[in-house]
Amino acid sequence: MNVRALALLPIPLIFAAGACTARWWFARAPSQFAADLAQPYVIVTSWGVYGAAAFALLATTLACATVALIFAARTLGRDPKPGNAAAVIVVAGLAIAGAFAWPFAFSSDPYAYAAYGAMVRDGLDPYALLPLHAHGAFYEAARWQWSGTYPVCVYGPAFVAIAAAAVAAFSVLGVGATLWALRIATALAFLGSIGCLRIALGGRPRRESAIALYAYGLNPVILWTVAEGHNDAWLLLAVMGAAALARTKPRLGAFALGASLIVKAPGAAFALGALVDGRLRLRRDRAAINGWLAAGLAFAAGPYLALMRPAFAALGAHGKYAPAVSIQGLIGPLPALALAVAAASYGVASLARGLQGGYAWLGIALLVGLPSGYPWYAVWLVPFALAGGPGRASIALWGATISSVLRYLPDAVGDIDPLTARALAVAAALPLLYALTEIPFAALRKKVPSQP
Q1: Cβ contacts of residue 247 below 8 Å, gap of 6+?
Q2: Which of 36, 168, 224, 419 shows the greatest Cβ crowding within 10 Å of its Cβ?
């Protein structure tokens, strides 16, 4: 392990220390949670005071890891050298392994992923509600997590194929082994995306490249949610892979970026940013790149929307819109969406002027428009912060990915009073206020030179 990795080593050590503490504490879990503890992948849900303590362990761990990351990035950023990507991948892998050692998690999503894969195996449509007559280990495990009916699939067919492959390969070993396979594969996808980011950053100043790698690859909230098994990491592998490909084959890279929608819907937001980026306006092949980008979007959107028809119908008939620990939950859906539109408009206008900070404002718009700011959304919000450059909006967005961990608390505890819910929403949104300080100075900023 090189000197860079050693300087970053406190991050995985903090995750490991958290795991040891959690295991000691978990061994003393009250018997009333025996049914939860018997599941193949233990999820903290409605555990009252005990759930609040579990959340406190995680929040403390992530806070300490964030402080360690900031300190290490400031120290190493003064003298960046080659090898940063290798160090980040090694340390990120160790940190994820430390997160794997925790005896519980806070999201049941991997159960749904496995159930979608089982539905494909059994000839059922994962984009529709599971029929009542359908039974099996994967279905019962997912039903139990969601108290009867787990949500319909809203992901692209590429990820559904990944889930189906995991079930096909590991179902004979049981639900637990399949969930582990999905989580490990997700971790590998994320580590691969770090390598792709390093390629995409080629030609950038060393210090800027190093800070971007640290901010992305070692963001503690991202590391935790990747370890939980969230499929957002697969989207980032697609997006970062497209960015890396664009270094040498810009047209194919543009097509791949547009096609990332086939993994998960937020891929379309990355494509939107590229379409309006004024820094590329003077490229001789700009029209061709836009054409390939649009072709990628069309290639992915066609099958995605066609498959999603039953999901839209199920969501309309059975879905419940309940904003929580978010701007929407704090001020209401319509005012929050108006703020999101304003932030997106500002971001698009900035990008059209050649100001890379517009990407960060697009990320802020996405965050403000979300009904529930779950931590795993940080996985695809951080790239917007990186693309936005070293501005205040980027720093604010990155900070908001850390505070998003507060969204776990209501689910871990169960019912919380409205005042506590509002306090959590305010605390989670506080980092975004720093972005507002950027607006008065926007007119003084120089345009980023266009790249021929």
Answers
A1: 199, 200, 202, 253
A2: 224
